[in-house]
Design goal:
This protein is α/β, with parallel strands linked by helices. It contains twelve helices and 14 strands. The chain has a seven-stranded mixed β-sheet. Strands 11-8-9-12 form a four-stranded mixed β-sheet, with helices on one face. Helix 2 (about 45-50) runs parallel beside helix 4 and helix 3 packs antiparallel against helix 6. The longest helix has about 30 residues, at about 125-155. The radius of gyration is 20 Å and the shape is globular. The two termini are about 30 Å apart. The relative contact order is 0.12. It binds 5-S-methyl-1-O-phosphono-5-thio-D-ribulose. 5-S-methyl-1-O-phosphono-5-thio-D-ribulose (MRU) binds next to helix 3 and strand 9. The site of 5-S-methyl-1-O-phosphono-5-thio-D-ribulose has 19 residues, from helix 3 and strand 9.
Length: about 350
């Protein structure tokens, strides 16, 4: 694999600190201009890192949360089980409240808490050992999931295709390869070439700051466009498929992803372009029957009015509506690409089958 491609796909974005009581993350808010690593030690620092998108992307949030709750638990060593379990639960709930939409956050924290519950009556150091194994397993499994998703995704496109993507679902948002960008990196590794159009993704510019950065660095042909240019590139005939990530997939296939995704799906449908959602099964939440059950995060109006501008672009008293995600209706989705295979409509059936025993 070329060095540049390896550096992008194997970026060291989240790891446990050497003391085992902290977590080191690559601060995604500083990219593409600065590569800055942060060490998170307190629950507040961890909460803020997730809330402020220093670590972001559904799978990456889950991986980070697993390491964070483990690091915090290590700081509790020496307490008795009841006290340990109560404090663990309190910190888990606190971290879980940092962002509501990506299910991977609660998925990873709940998975970690199950280890504590199962360890009732055991010495705390033993439970800590198991917690350490669990958070590493969450990370390792994500690496394998991204690779499998990349393989399935690659089977949907051919050399030379034009691909449109929204937000960032690459290695920074996951672990290695990524989900929506994974097939493009894997294809590049195999000598294939794609023409990728990256929506800048207002208001926090994950497409401009992160997706175009990752693809450009890896030597993949990428063209950055503003979100409102998706229609013209589709009309021009430059797009063969849309690949996007996901933050929560409901049982019927309705999918929450970065704000603007549903608009891309509606355009793709109009132009007859296949629209694929790529994500691990850890992002599927069967307890949400439809997208209506998914809580959408609302963020600070300043992200629209001021952030990234030299001076405010609206009067301070102007009202803003700043939802961080929207839900793409399942009828607009051509396929949901998971590590276990590609689900096709009807999703209520194909997603349920994915979770059925033996799959
Ligand atoms: O607000 P963000 O940057 O965390 O939103 C990220 C997305 O919407 C991604 O597409 C999604 O989390 C999938 S990342 C593999």
């Amino acid at each position: 694999m070329p060095d540049a491609l390896y550096e992008v796909t194997h970026i060291d974005n989240i790891r446990l600190g050497e003391d085992g009581q902290s977590v080191v993350i690559l601060d995604q808010t500083q990219l593409p201009n600065r590569t800055v690593y942060l060490t998170l030690r307190t629950a507040r620092e961890m909460y803020d890192a997730i809330k402020k998108l220093k670590v972001r992307g559904a799978p990456a949030i889950g991986i980070c949360a697993g390491y964070c709750i483990y690091a915090l638990a290590r700081q509790l060593d020496g307490t008795d089980y009841t006290e340990f379990a109560a404090e663990f639960h309190r910190q888990k709930e606190f971290l879980n409240s940092s962002r509501p939409t990506a299910v991977n956050l609660s998925w990873a924290l709940t998975r970690m808490e199950r280890v504590v519950t199962a360890g009732a009556g055991k010495p705390v150091p033993d439970i800590l050992d198991r917690l350490g194994r669990e958070c590493r397993a969450i990370h390792e499994e994500d690496i394998a999931m991204c690779r499998a998703i990349s393989e399935y995704g690659l089977s949907l496109i051919k050399d030379g295709d034009g691909i449109l993507t929204h937000c960032n679902a690459g290695p920074l948002a996951t672990s290695r390869y990524g989900t929506a960008l994974g097939p493009l990196f894997l294809g590049k590794e195999r000598g294939m070439g794609f023409h990728v159009f990256s929506d800048e993704t207002r208001p926090l510019l994950q497409g401009a700051r992160l997706t175009s950065y990752e693809l450009q660095k890896a030597g993949i042909d990428v063209t950055l466009i503003c979100d409102n240019m998706a229609s013209i590139v589709m009309k021009n005939g430059w797009i063969n498929a849309c690949f996007v990530g996901c933050d929560r997939v409901a049982a019927n296939g309705d999918t929450a992803n970065k704000i603007g995704t549903s608009g891309v799906a509606i355009l793709a449908n109009y132009y007859g372009i296949p629209f694929y959602v790529l994500g691990p099964t850890s992002t599927v939440d069967l307890s949400c029957k439809t997208g209506g059950d998914i809580q959408i995060e609302l963020r600070d109006p300043d992200e629209i009015k001021e952030k990234f501008y030299a001076e405010p672009m609206a009067l301070p008293e102007v009202k803003c509506y700043n939802p961080a995600f929207d839900v793409t209706d399942h009828t607009l989705i051509s396929g949901i690409v998971t590590e276990k295979g590609i689900c096709r409509p009807p999703y209520t059936q194909s997603l349920a089958e994915l979770f059925a025993q033996g799959k």
